[in-house]
Amino acid sequence: MRRMLQGTALALGLAALTGPAAAQEITVVVANMSGYLDPARDHSNVGSQFYFNLFDPLIHRDYAKLEPEWLPGLAVSWQQTSPTTMELTLREGVQFHTGATMTADDVIFSLNRMFQADFPPYQVRQRDRLANFDRAEKIDDRTIRVHTKRPETLFETLLNLQQLFIVPEAYVKSLAGDPNALEHDDYEAFGQKPVGTGPYRLAEFVPGQMVVYERFEGFWGVPAPLAKATVRHVPEVASRLTALRTGEAHIATNIPPDQLAAIEADPGLKAESAQTALFHMMIMNVNHPKMQDARIRRALTLAIDRDLLNEALWLGKAEIPASHTLREFGPLYMPELKTFRYDPEEAKRLLAEAGYDGFEIVYDHFPNYYTNEVLAAQAIMEMWAAVGINGRLNQQPAWTGGKPEMMVRTWSNPMYFADPAGQFGVMWAPGGPAQSEGRFNTDEAYAAAWERFRFSADLADRKAAYAELMARIEADPPFLPLWRPYESWAMRQGVNWKPQPGHIPYVLDFRAGAITLDAMN
Amino acid sequence: MTALAAPRAPGALARLWAEADAVQRAALVLALILLALALLAPLVAPFDPNAQSLLARMRPPAGFERARPGHWLGTDELGRDILSRCLFALRLTLGLALAGAVIGLVLGGTLGLIAGLLGGRVEAAVMGAVDAQIAVPFTLIALFVLVLFGNTLPVLVIVLGLYGWEQYARIVRAETRKLMAMPFIEAARAAGAGPVRIARVHLMPNLVSPLVVQFTLSLSGIVLLESTLSFLGLGVQPPTATLGAMVGVGRDYMPNAPWIVIAPAVTILLVTFAVQILGDWLRDRADPRLRPR
Fold first, then answer.
1. Residues of chain B whose C-beta is under 8 A from some C-beta in A?
2. Is residue B246 a contact partner of residue B268, using CB atoms and an 8 Å limit?
3. Contact predicate A331/A466, CB 8 Å
4. Residue B108: how many CA atoms within 13 Å on its side-chain side?
């Protein structure tokens, strides 16, 4: 009897282990999860993980490739009919997760709520990346036109953004207050119950804790490879790895390089790593009374040996950028610019010249957010001390970047789209987030160079203008890009997933072609 | 008093030692060693606790492969000497925990005593505050205070001091109420003693033993609370080492560099072990009901 019971228990145990594989279900444990899911207002590294499974843009790209190769999304074809106009033909028979069929009106609604934003969180995104769009206009049931204010060279790139994913108009309006009118509360409510056209629908969302995807049978494209994917928030690395080892989870995000050896030594686990398309930054408040002298800020950057930090903290696998530039930018990738370097002697000289009297420079940082952030902060304090800078760490979970007393802090500058305008341009534009938080100044010359870099139709002119901007950043630095981090995802053997090079950072892409499961052990 | 006590001290210590059993003696020796190490950390530590060696990170303790000479307990995630950090951390953590526990004891004990003695509205107010404190998770209060006032060392000491005051208050108030009903208090009162004299002469000696037990319990609790706050980034700022912060950081390195967490964790274990055993022993000796007549 006892033996039979044991046998049954064993069989049940096996069923529990193999069951999910057979049913194509996985559990993912992530380091961070936000309190809402709205791709239009969000541009965080946390949110970017979740949207691609739920929504589609008008224009897709081949995400397996680094170089942009545009593919039909919810538009089947498109043509730029003038420097300021793009005409798109919409896909027919696309269903939202609610069962409703996508119409040209849904598309116009989705675009114009951003182009002519009146909801403050959307206005921020409108200003920092969609400012050149004027309006979207319906021509007939299958055709729309998108108009820009000035000639646009980045139409496809921008129409691919998560901020322009297509959502159902009637559903959004029905959420709060009057079911037939559009209110700001509708947008707030949408963030809790988002609906799109993607291969997965959101089965459950517990803000900050859990996201559950289920295959959407009405999807217009190749069906989702997973029946169900449960994403759980597990902030500690050790707990994420334990969940992986016990089989409770199949994929774990944000694994620091220090853990890779232990994962490789475990026959049941493996890791996929990539240099993620963003920079971890050290930003400096140019308007802090004690930091106004550019020589002080230059010294702060020149004192940091980023190559040594890379070797020590990233196993040498991060990339140390010479300037604010990424290889994703194609012809606009400009590694020949040498904007940032390590030169402790020059740092000492500048400090002496500026008459630095040893005042304390406070370095704010989060306790547990960016990979290697705390280690790097402590190492940077030693490097500063070596040239005579009196640094002090201030670890706190709150964002201090908008406070006038902030001196130096950590930040990241992700690539929001594959163009310098989608990384440097979003954060450091005249009137952009850095300036509006009061820690960066621009003048007319800067604005003129920025305009040329953003809107010139001539590639060489864009590059020349960008070089000019970088020369200004070098002379009067508001930041230092520390590195392009080497991020890793750990998973159980049998799970075949890796970050796709065509995505913005951290996207957990579970669409067909991006993930497969072997019979799992 | 002191003149009389001084010559008696060696004799008293010797008697204490003679009465102790093996475990108590071990705890006493351990406590003295830990105290000495904490006080002498700057002299005993082989390295500057904050000196990094970025290219010699996570080296194992002496005797293991890849160990670095001189670093007996290995190096941590920034190549700092773990032994030196443990010694300095012991110093700071003991200081923090003692300060916090004493603040809690004085605050809670006084309030509890006043509540028990005076009764009525005062008692209701104190016990209301106690209930409020129990109703809200303490970590939440600590986070709130630290975010509001910034996490500097003085604020941290006060927060740690607030931890557990309500336990002292409850215990002292209950004991006081019980004692107040006793005939000897009645007798003292009849003899004309005021509340202050009653509290000082008749109540306090009887309160020592439960307070000592609570003190030892909360001392270990505070060490752990400090660890929690450090992990959330609200403890002592890096690179300063505390035992809790070292455990918090070391937890992430358990699979590949377990020595980073083991050394401070064992130190915490030794501290709490010594404190608990000594507390037990002190209670047995201090409780008038257990004292041999």
1. 52, 54-55, 57-58, 77-79, 147, 150-151, 231-234, 237-239, 249, 251-257
2. no
3. no
4. 28
The confidence score (pLDDT) of residue A13 equals 43
Which pLDDT does position A487 carry in this prediction? 94
**Widest distance between CA atoms in chain A:** 87
Q: Where are the beta strands (DSSP E) in A321-414?
A: 360-365, 390-395, 408-414
Tell me how far apart the alpha carbons of residues B8 and B3 are, in angstroms, rounded to a whole number: 9
How many whole angstroms separate alpha carbon A373 and alpha carbon A384? 16
> In chain A, positions 356-385, which contact chain B (CB-CB < 8 Å)?
366-368, 374-375, 377-379, 381-382
E-assigned strands of A41-149? 59-61, 70-72, 75-82, 85-90, 133-140, 143-148
Distance CA A208, CA A50 (A): 12
Question: How many Å apart are CA B293 and CA A3, to the nearest integer?
Answer: 63
Dist CA B278 CA A348 (whole Å): 54
Q: Using one digit for the tens of pLDDT, what is the confidence trace for A61-86?
A: 999 999 899 999 999 999 999 999 99
CA distance A210 to A27: 10
Task: Tell me which residue of A478, A407, A423, A418 sits closest to A446, measured CA to CA.
Answer: A478
Task: Show the tokens assigned to B67.
Answer: 């160990």
Q: Considering CB atoms only, which of A259, A262, A378 is closest to B238?
A: A378
- Can you give the pLDDT at residue A22? 52
Q: What is the pLDDT of residues B253-290, one digit of tens each?
A: 888 899 999 999 999 889 888 888 888 887 777 666 66
CB B271 within 8 A of CB B38: no
| CA proximity to A504, closest of A75, A197, A49 | A49
Q: Chain B within 8 Å of A259 (Cβ-Cβ)?
A: yes
Global pTM? Answer: 0.82
| Residue A343 main-chain phi, psi, to 5 deg | -155, 85
- Residue of A242, A371, A381, A382 to mutate when probing chain B, most B C-beta within 10 A: A382
Cα distance between residue A412 and residue A380, in whole Å? 17
> For testing the chain A interface, which of B77, B140, B156 should be mutated: the one with the most A CBs within 10 Å?
B77
Contact A456, A462 (CB under 8 A): yes
Instruction: Judge whether A299 and A356 are in contact, CB under 8 Å.
Output: yes
Torsion of CA A21, A23, A26, A27, to 10 degrees: -110
Q: Say yes or no for a CB contact (<8 Å) between B52 and A379.
A: yes
Contact A393 B237 (CB under 8 A): yes
Q: Choose the closest CB to B252 out of A238, A313, A367.
A: A238
Is the peptide bond prior to A223 cis by the omega test (within 30 degrees of 0)? no
Give the Cα separation of A31 and A508 in Å (integer).
Answer: 13
Q: Residue A521: pLDDT above 50?
A: no
A-B interface: how many C-beta pairs under 8 angstroms? 71
CB A89 within 8 A of CB A142: yes
Among chain B residues, CA nearest to A266: B255
Instruction: Inform me whether the pLDDT recorded for A4 exceeds 70.
Output: no
Strand partners, A115: none
Taken in order of first residue, the domains within chain B and their CATH numbers are 23-40+71-290 (1.10.3720.10)
Q: Is A64 on the interface with B (CB under 8 A)?
A: no
Do the chains contact at B147 and A379, CB–CB below 8 Å?
no
What DSSP letter does each residue of A213-235 carry, written as one string? EEE-TT-SSSPPS-SEEEEEE--
From the list B157, B35, B149, B124, the residue with the least C-alpha distance to B87 is B35
On chain B, the residues whose CB falls within 8 A of the CB of A256 are 252
Q: Read off the pLDDT band of B69 (50, 70, 90).
A: confident
Q: Which of A394, A396, A488 to mutate to test the interface with B (most CBs of B within 10 A)?
A: A396
Distance CA B83, CA B69 (A): 13
In this complex, the residue of A237, A313, A382 whose CB is nearest that of residue B252 is A237
